[in-house]
Amino acid sequence: MTWHILGAGSLGSLWATRLARAGLPVRLILRDAPRLAAYHAAGGLSLVENGQARRYPIPGETAAAGAPVQRLLLACKAYDAEEAAATLAPRLSPDAEIILLQNGLGSQDAVAARLPRARCILASSTEGAFRDGDFRVVFAGQGHTWLGIEGQAQAPAWLGELEQAGIAHTWSAEILAKLWRKLALNCAINPLTVLHDCRNGGLAAWPDEVAALCQELATLLRACGQASAAEGLHAEVQRVIAATAANYSSMYQDVAAGRRTEIAYLLGHACQAAARQQLAVPHLQALQQRLSAHLAARGLPVT
Length: 303
Ligand code: NAD
Ligand code: KPL
Prior knowledge:
CATH topology of the largest domain: Rossmann fold
Strand content: 15-25%
Oligomer: single chain
CATH architecture of the largest domain: 3-Layer(aba) Sandwich
Bound molecules: nicotinamide-adenine-dinucleotide, ketopantoate
Radius of gyration: 19 Å
């Protein structure tokens, strides 16, 4: 079974190169003909691991190519996911499976609504990768990927291929709790690092702000039926701040580089969920307003 991977960005390239290295059939879906031509000119995808680069000549195509797609890894940003999935709709076989690698929440439902016949598998990853050149990805941080369909205990047989490719993973029937927990961590840390212009460790100077956000986020998680994701949230946020003290958060890096953020799928999703639950979250709302103003002042989208 071929792995079609849409998005030759950081995570898409990290998955594509490791699957190809394990001898599994992989095809990369590029945005358009000019990107495909640039990819061909590059001669494949390069993976940099422990300072060593190796190139993998993985076949590429655009969404317009004809062959049916049975297994798709959607590896674009959350704000591109629905449209990207829609471009592939005509090629999806009736029993197609789509693995959604997007951070945050909201994009997964949008994809599922666009492709009602596809089997959507949600994923939450703590792996770290970045691009240091076109079609070149650096494996920056070992991590783990949880995959699952809510309430489904039976893992698909192809998970063995991830094993074969050395992609650390676990199947989870409580994948929504994983995604909510990561969303809460990101909401408690990332926007504050942008607003206070600091590394994660700099948030140790703002303990009351962090505590107030964690308290609201935990209440929200419980209201949304995610009590397990609320458990010990503040303590974990403090642990992550200490453990990643020297790092800049992903949102900080996006803003610093003038890139669009995934705010709508993190803080935006949290505030919307609170509104649906008629739950007052004044700190989260104030944070969203401050962050939106900060992004707008830099010409960046606030959704
Ligand atoms: P990225 O921006 O590096 O890569 C996304 C790629 O998708 C880009 O190359 C973009 O051109 C491509 N793309 C978008 N729309 C497309 C389309 N219609 N057709 C073809 N290609 C298209 O992003 P990333 O860092 O790999 O992140 C992907 C998701 O994974 C995000 O939600 C992110 O939050 C999450 N994530 C990333 C990391 C990481 O270390 N990079 C870790 C954990 C989670
Ligand atoms: O995931 C993160 C990010 O920067 O996006 C951490 C390190 C957990 C901070 O929220």
